[in-house]
Amino acid sequence: MERNLKELISQMTLEEKAGMCSGLDFWHLKGVERLGIPSTTVSDGPHGLRKQDDKADHLGINDSIKAVCFPPAVLSACSFDRDLLETLGETVGDEAQATDLSVVLGPAVNIKRSPLCGRNFEYYSEDPYLAGESAAAFIKGVQSRHVGTSIKHFAANNQEFNRMSASSEVDERTMREIYLPAFETAVKKSQPYTVMCSYNKINGTYASENPWLLTKVLRDEWGFKGYVMSDWGAVNDRVEGLKAGLELEMPSSNGINDAEIVKAVQEGTLDEAILDRAVERILNIVFEYVDNRKEQPLTLKEDHEFAQHVAEESIVLLKNEEKVLPLEKNEKVAFIGGFVKNPRYQGGGSSHVNSFKVTSVWDALTEKENVIYAEGFSSETDVYDEKLAAEAIEAAKQVDKAVVFAGLPESFESEGYDRKHMHLPECQNKLIAEIVKAQPNTIVVLHNGAAVEMPWLKDVKGLVEAYLGGQAVGQAEANILYGNVNPSGKLAETLPIKLEDNPSYLNFGDGDKVEYSEGIFVGYRYYDKKKMEVAFPFGYGLSYTTFEYSNVKTDKDTLTEGETLQVSVDVTNTGDKFGKEIVQLYVADKTEAIRRPEKELKGFEKVALNPGETKRVTFTLDKRSFAWYNTDIHDWYAASGEYDILIAASSRDVRLTKTIQWESTQVLPLHLHLNTTVGELLSDERTKALGKELKDKMNAIFFGGSDGGTDESTDGDKAVSDDMGDAIAASIPIRNALSFGLYDKEELLKLLDELNKR
């Protein structure tokens, strides 16, 4: 329906306009009945809807309607499958239409800086490219149903400790390369209807009143068209937030902050045009939903089956020695652990779904004559029960193989607090060690929202990472274990051996300021740079078949600004089973223009192959695929030189390499001053001549070397070789030329000024 929103807004009172900028209650936006503006409902929903029952408490923290809990992002990201995530979004959007929800509060794309973050189960990845592509696909799916999404939490919200007040201290390059790109990709590709700002401060300024974040970056640079809402209770100063670009405060402030807006307009400290603009942005989204409202049934049974499919496409097979998996129907198997009948399938907090059905792996077994069950340990406590343990060990002795279903109790990880360690409950570690002694063919299946330490890893023959698999996790696990489905998921995060290996270890979770001192070296960017041993690398995952890569080609060997690069490679299923392979493309900068990671993910594709089948996979790269964020120009920059295109099965398993040449036409401005080093002068063709002149003169003074004249001494007579002199001179500031009377100060400053104008 066509509407003149500006005309509609002109008919609203100042109080009504201010009221539109905050919630009616915990889950509803205000309407203006006399003007035909309805109240609409929002709901949590990154992996399933949490619409509050009308009879539930007004705070919205208790019972919600029955819905489907799909696999949370920690697992679905392991699918590396844009189409699957788009379909997941469509399914969530359909459920939202069926239950009359205008906006789903998700997806959550914050980077997994530390394994300890209590909310990691809601986040996709440690890698911003994977997180952004996953989010963009999900958003596209949801919004195809005219239901909004609210991508969150914007930005640098990577811990739960002091999340409402701590300041994330992040340098500009790190912010741009690690913590913003997932949001940027989603905004540019899929235009989420809303963006949810985070609780925390960023370099001392609350995200909710940060004009650089909410206006300059989000709107002016990225072209965001929707409205910004606060996380629940994230508003510090309502008027300053509105000025900065925060349109909607959630939940209701019971009129307190509405009155602040009215007062600010009346006193002239807030331009009413800013308020009108905010209301228009909110109404655009309200009517997008209202005008496309579709009455439809809630298809819980079908959606449960789809949740199972998502889990099957995402579960990661990490270890399979001696082909211990898949299990055979005629093998005697022991299923051990409390998670067998009581699986952990979602995280705690605001995203917790009231599932209409939960399928455990025990429920999923249609034939149990060759399977025995032993509880071994509770899924909810860390207590070593001698009787339960003894029964489990005895069961393991009586079978061909033992499968231990281990994981983290719900109390170990949740929104609102961070983990203190990476340990599984000690009762589980102890029992797994005992099971391995009794049964060498032991497999572990993990239910966890984030990485855990695995002291028994070398001793077990099989390992399956099911993470939190949604309400149909049991059927998915059974199909993977028995080979009905070939596992195809790969890790969306690195699994370190121990917590102390994590780059943020010394700077996570303390105090009012959180120093992001590891900079851009997060996840595999850190582990690969340090060549550090890990339990399992980013992008890793096994299959019941095998794949080979060959025939990598690029459509050009040299490219520059404005051009794209096509990279193609053949992938062949060399095994005897149907399978899916996730082909990963990384870029390695060989220019040494600045310190960068060894490699960075810049493309991925999931390809399905029958035995013996070959398919050609193609990637498209642009300048951004090669660039880093240059803080001198506050923009993306790729230095001229060589870049390696790496075709890989994981960050540690590079199969093919192709080198290309990038030729930059971008000229970086010079910022020469007296503390610029001679080495910096020598590195730029525009200043190389001055750098050489200074180097020679300073070497002559310091070491008695060449000053441009003839030196008849032999190499053996030199206290410092030419190479040594070059290395030493590289760190000498220009001002030293004044100290030794090599230049007049005014003369030198004039020369530097002339060079800066080039």
Keywords:
Rossmann fold, 18% strand, 5-stranded parallel sheet, alpha/beta, Immunoglobulin-like, 758 residues, 25 strands, 6-stranded mixed sheet
Give a brief rundown of this model:
It is built from 22 helices and 25 strands. Helices cover 29% and strands 18% of the residues.
Structure, described:
This protein starts with a helix and ends with a helix. The chain contains 22 helices and 25 strands. 51% of the residues are buried. Among the domains are: 300-529, Glycoside hydrolase family 3 C-terminal domain (Rossmann fold), CATH 3.40.50.1700; 547-663, Immunoglobulin-like (Sandwich); 678-756, no CATH class. A 6-stranded mixed beta sheet has the order 9-14-13-12-10-11. Strand 2 (103-105), helix 5 and strand 3 form a beta-alpha-beta unit. With 758 residues, it is α/β, with parallel strands linked by helices. The longest helix has 19 residues, at 272-290.
Average pLDDT, rounded to a whole number, is 94
Helix content: 25-40%
CATH class of one domain equals Alpha Beta
CATH topology name of one domain = Rossmann fold
Q: Give the tally of β-strands.
A: 25
Strand content: 15-25%
How large is the radius of gyration? Answer: 29 Å
For the termini, the CA-CA separation is 56 Å
User: Which architecture of one domain does the CATH hierarchy give at level 2?
Assistant: 3-Layer(aba) Sandwich
Count of helical stretches: 22
Low-pLDDT residue spans? 56-60, 707-713
Q: Could you say which overall geometry the principal axes of the C-alpha atoms support?
A: globular
Sheet with the most strands?
6 strands, mixed
Looking at this structure, what is the CATH superfamily of one domain?
Answer: Glycoside hydrolase family 3 C-terminal domain
Strand order of the largest sheet: 9-14-13-12-10-11
Oligomer: single chain
Q: Which structural class is indicated by helix and strand composition? A: alpha/beta
